Amino acid sequence: MTDTATPVTSAPEGRPAKRSYAKLAADESREDYSLRYAPHSFRRWSPSMVAGTALGGIAYLADFAIGASIVFTYGFTSGLASILCAAAIIFLTGIPIARACAKYGLDMDLITRGAGFGYFGSTLTSLIYASFTFIFFALEGSIMAQAMHQAIGLPVEFGYLITTLIVIPIVFRGMGALAKVQAWTQPIWLIGLVLPFVVLAFEAPDAWGQFTSFGGTEGAGPGFSWLAFGLGTGVALSLIAQIGEQADYLRFMPAKTEHNKHRWNIAVLAAGPGWVIIGAAKQLGGAFLAFVALEAVGKTRALEPIAPQIEALKPWLGSVALPAAALFVIVSQIKINVTNAYSGSLSWSNFFSRLTHKHPGRVWYIFLNLAIALTLMEMNMFAALNKLLGFYSNVGIAWITAVAADLVINKRIGLSPPYIEFKRAYLYAVNPAGFGAMVVASTVSILAFFGLFGEYAQAFSTFIAAGLALVLCPLIAWLTKGKYYLARPNPVNGPHVLVDDITATHSCAVCDTAYELPDIADCPVQAGPICSLCCSLDAECGDACRKGDAASGPVLLGLPTPRRS
C-alpha cells in the first residue's frame, strides 16, 4: 500500500458537487476509507504483508498483566484452564469474522450492520468497540508509564500524558504510517519478548516446575476449581473484541484468487483469530515471569510487566537490565497503542456519523478516544483490572458471538442474505436477530455477573452471554423469517445481480467522486448512484428508498465505468 490514496475519477466537469468533504475527511491517505468499503484499487498489500502488520498490532503487554492477574488470583491449574478455554472461544468466533472482513473489504462495524444488527442496530456495538479501544489504550498506557517511572523516575501522571501524546502523529497519518511502525519495531520486540525466557531457561531451570504447583496469592490453592475457572475465563474473554482491531487490517487483504488462495487463507487465519494463539502464550508467559519475580518485588509490582522483565534479565544483563526492559515495554506499548487509537477513531467516526449525519474526518476522533483513555489512566484503572475486564467481557462476547452465529449459521441455512449488505439504502434501522440476541444475552449475563442468580451463574456469566447469543440469533431470525435483513433488494451488486467487474465504478451524484460498485447504492432522491458515506450522511431524504412508492422498484443507473489499469 502506498502512503497516498489512489486518485479517483470525478464526475463530469462543470457540475458542482452537492457535498464536498472537509480536507482531512477527503484525504484517503489519512482516512483509509473509514466508514466505507475498502476498494480493490486501495488493497495493494500482499496477504503476507497484511498478516505481518496485523500481528504487529498484538505486541501489547496487557496479556502479561492479565495472565499474571488470573494465575495470582485463581492459581495455576484453574488459571491455565481459563486462559486456554478463552483462547479456544476467541479463535472459533474469530474465524468467520476474519474471513468476512477480508472477503468484503469491511471493518467490524460494517460487518456487524449486515450480520444481523441493521443500520442503527450496530451503533451500540460501535460504542462497545470504542470502549474496548480506550480501555486497553489506558491499560497499555499505564504499563508504559510504569516502565518510564522505573527507568528514569518520571512520575506516572506525566507518563500517562506522554504515552497519550506520542501516538498522535503516527495515528494521524493513517494505516501507511502504522504499517511502517510495526515493521521497524518488530525485531526489537521479538528479541525483548523471547530473551527473558531464554535467560530463565538457563538460570532458573526448576522455576517452571514450581510454577505449575503455584496456588496463587489469594488462597485459591493449586487444584482446579470450577468457580475459579469460570471467573478467570471471564477476565480472559475481555480480549474477544480484539478481532475488531484485526479487522481494521484484514479489510485491506487483496482479493482471493486461484493463484493466491492458499496464502490468502493462511494469512487471514493468522491475521484474524491467529492472534489469540500468541496472546494465550503471552498470558501464560507473563504469569510465569510474575511468579519468578514475586519474592523479589512483591505482589503489586509483580503484576506490572516491567518489574518481572527486569528481574528475568538481571542474571545476564546486570545493570543494563533496567534500560533493556524499559525499551522493550515502551516499544511494545507504542506498537499496540497506535492500533488502539486508530481503531478507536474508526469506531467513533461510525458512531457519530449515524447520529449527527456529519463526518469531519476520522482524525478528529483520535483526540476524543485519547482523552477518555487518559482520564481512565489518571483514575488508576489498573488497580481494578479483573473487575473491569470481567464486566466488559459480558457485553463483548454477546456481540461477537451474535455476529459469528449469523455468519456461520444464519447465512448457511438461508435465514440471512448470502453476502454482507452494509449500506443504509438497503437495511432496516434495527434487525432483531443479532441486535436482539446481543441485548438479551448481555443483559442476562450482566445480571448474573453481579450475583443475581447465584455464585456459579456469576462465575460463568460470560458463558451465559455466549450461549444465549449463539442460540437467540438464529432463533430470532427463524421466528421473523429473516424479514429484517434487507429492506429492499440491492440492484447494483446484490447476490442475484450479474456483475462482470466488481471494481467498475459509478460517480456519486452527491460528492461527484467515483467509487467501486460495492460502495454504491441506487438513490431515488438523487435519481442516480450515491456512495455509502453520502447516503449515511443524508439527513433530509427521509429514507425514501425504503418507503412508499420510491421503494417499489430500483433506480435505473447507467453502465458503470471499468477501472482503469
Quick recap:
It is built from 24 helices and four strands.
Describe the overall structure.
The protein is mainly α. Helix content is about 60%, strand content about 0%. It is built from 24 helices and four strands. The chain has helices spanning about 25, 30, 45-55, 60-75, 75-105, 110-115, 125-150, 155-165, 170-175, 175-205, 205-210, 225-235, 240-250, 260-270, 275-295, 300, 305-315, 320-355, 365-380, 385-410, 430-450, 455-460, 460-480, 530-535, and strands at about 505, 515, 520-525, 530. Helix 5 (about 75-105) crosses helix 20 (about 385-410), helix 7 packs antiparallel against helix 20 and helix 12 (about 225-235) packs across helix 20. Mean pLDDT is about 90; it is low at about 1-15.
Summarize this structure as a short list of keywords or feature phrases:
two-stranded antiparallel sheet; 61% helix; mainly alpha; disordered N terminus; 24 helices; two-stranded antiparallel ribbon; 565 residues
| Mean pLDDT across all amino acids | 88
Query: N-to-C terminal Cα separation, in Å?
Result: 16 Å
Shape: globular
Largest sheet: 2 strands, antiparallel
Instruction: Provide the β-strand percentage band.
Output: under 5%
Oligomer: single chain
Instruction: Assign the structural class, choosing from mainly alpha, mainly beta, alpha/beta, alpha+beta, or little secondary structure.
Output: mainly alpha
**Which radius of gyration do the C-alpha atoms yield?**
24 Å
Percent range of helical residues: 55-70%
List the secondary-structure elements in sequence, H or E: HHHHHHHHHHHHHHHHHHHHHHHEEEEH
Overall number of strands: 4
Uncertain segments are 1-14
Q: Please give the count of helices.
A: 24
Enumerate the strands of the largest sheet in spatial order, edge to edge or round the barrel. Answer: 1-2
